[in-house]
Specification:
The chain is built from 13 helices and 12 strands. The protein has 384 residues and is of the alpha/beta class. The protein folds into 2 domains: 239 residues, Aspartate Aminotransferase, domain 2 (3-Layer(aba) Sandwich); 133 residues, Aspartate Aminotransferase, domain 1 (Alpha-Beta Complex), CATH 3.90.1150.10. The strands form 2 sheets. The protein has a 7-stranded mixed β-sheet, sandwiched between helices. A 5-stranded mixed β-sheet has the order 8-9-12-11-10. Helix 6 links the parallel strand 4 and strand 5. Helix 9 crosses helix 13 and helix 11 packs across helix 13. It is globular. Bound molecules: pyridoxal-5'-phosphate. Pyridoxal-5'-phosphate binds next to helix 3.
């Protein structure tokens, strides 16, 4: 009996038992080449860049969970995004969420613009804004969900119907929401992407990217790029990411619960001017989240807030005892990032000013500590 695709059971059992050993977890195959007893009828594995059993186990598992036809594992989230943009050709145009992470903008501006691929940035909450940047040669729309750092929630079904009406593919970078809380392919999205370095890897110890295509035509094009450009995930890292994937549901439930409590606590703290958390009824994306995500499982582990001054951020950072400070998210430890210095450092000061990413903004990736310790940590660090 097949498991429900994004059930806890499928996260654990989406991969097959290893056919040669019946091992319950996928063995690490390091071989780069395979004996071909009949080279005129090559076996499924012939050369490691093209396919590897450990990587395939992860790719099949994420495809099954997301509800797509084929999964792909890359050496990093940026490698997955690069492979996606390589689906385009010179003269094509792509629309990207205006509040996407800095690395995506750096890649488009610093690399793909040199190969004749143009990008426009749009508020994906607004169909009129999307329409205003659309061009006859627009081939893809990349939506980052939630947005970073203010955690806007994209109305995926609405966006998909607009884009498909114009022959535009929809790609969703769902790193922040994770396949446990949302499966965009089931809402008509063409390609879902993840930085596996974050919640899916889950332990701040592996760099990886994942992609899943909804239909075979796109899957074939992406496989061609994966094999031709070669930014594949190593077998050891595929094993580690797959281990993380199996425990994603329990980690997300715990961290989302603490994130919700932290958001509520911060909202009542006089040092905090605004809390951005989709689980709070006042968040502009709350209703969309309820409609498009499995919110009974939680609203995710990311919480962003704004303090009343940048100086208060410096004091808070010096007082935190449990939370770690730095770039990154999705690990077992709570991580505080300062978007101006970390995730959005690649933007110019003017771009950050327009997007209101100033020194008073703090982004928290809530970890797996006792929630009481985390709530207490922020409360004691935010006494002014
Ligand atoms: N997508 C999102 C939403 C991210 O936050 C990041 C990194 O922060 C990436 C992609 C890139 O992933 P990686 O660091 O694994 O290359």
């Amino acid at each position: 009996m097949p498991a429900t695709p994004n059930s806890d059971t499928n996260f654990v059992h989406a991969h097959q038992l290893d056919p040669s050993s019946q091992a319950v977890v996928p063995p690490i195959y390091r071989a780069t080449t395979y004996h071909q007893a009949d080279p005129w009828n090559p076996p499924p594995f012939d050369y490691a860049r093209s396919a590897n059993p450990t990587r395939n186990a992860l790719e099949n598992a994420i495809a099954s969970i997301e509800g797509g036809v084929r999964g792909f594992a890359f050496a990093s989230g940026m490698a997955a995004l690069t492979a996606s943009f390589l689906l385009l050709k010179s003269g094509d145009h792509v629309i990207v969420s205006e509040d996407c992470q800095g690395g995506t903008q750096r890649l488009l501006r610093g690399v793909f613009s040199r190969f004749g691929i143009a990008a426009s940035y749009a508020n994906t909450d607004s169909l009129p804004h999307l329409e205003s940047v659309r061009r006859p040669n627009t081939k893809a729309l990349l939506v980052e969900n939630f947005s970073n750092p203010f955690l806007h929630v994209a109305d995926i079904p609405n966006i998909v119907s607009w884009a498909h009406r114009h022959g535009i593919e929809v790609w969703v970078d769902n790193t922040f929401i994770t396949p446990y809380l949302q499966n965009p392919l089931r809402m008509g999205v063409d390609l879902v992407l993840h930085s596996g370095t974050k919640m899916i890897g889950g332990h701040s110890d592996v760099t990886a990217g994942l992609a899943v295509a909804r239909e075979s035509g796109l899957a074939e094009r992406l496989y061609f790029i994966q094999n031709a450009a070669g930014a594949i995930l190593s077998p050891d890292d595929a094993y580690t990411v797959h281990r993380g994937l199996r425990t994603l549901p329990v980690r997300m439930r715990h961290a989302s619960r603490t994130a919700y409590e932290l958001a509520q606590t911060l909202a009542g703290n006089p040092a905090v001017s605004t809390v951005y958390y989709p689980g709070l009824p006042g968040h502009p994306g709350h209703e969309v989240a309820q409609r498009t995500m499995t919110t009974e499982r939680g609203f995710g582990q990311m919480v962003t807030f704004r303090l009343k001054s940048s100086e208060a951020v410096t004091v808070m950072a010096s007082r935190l005892r449990w939370a770690r400070i730095g770039a990154g998210l999705g690990g077992t430890e709570t991580i505080v990032s300062l978007p101006e210095l970390h995730c959005h450092a690649a933007l110019t000061p003017e771009e950050r000013r327009i997007r209101e990413i100033t020194g008073d903004v703090v982004r928290v990736s809530v970890g797996l500590e006792d929630s009481t310790d985390i709530l207490e940590d922020f409360s004691q660090a935010l006494v002014f």
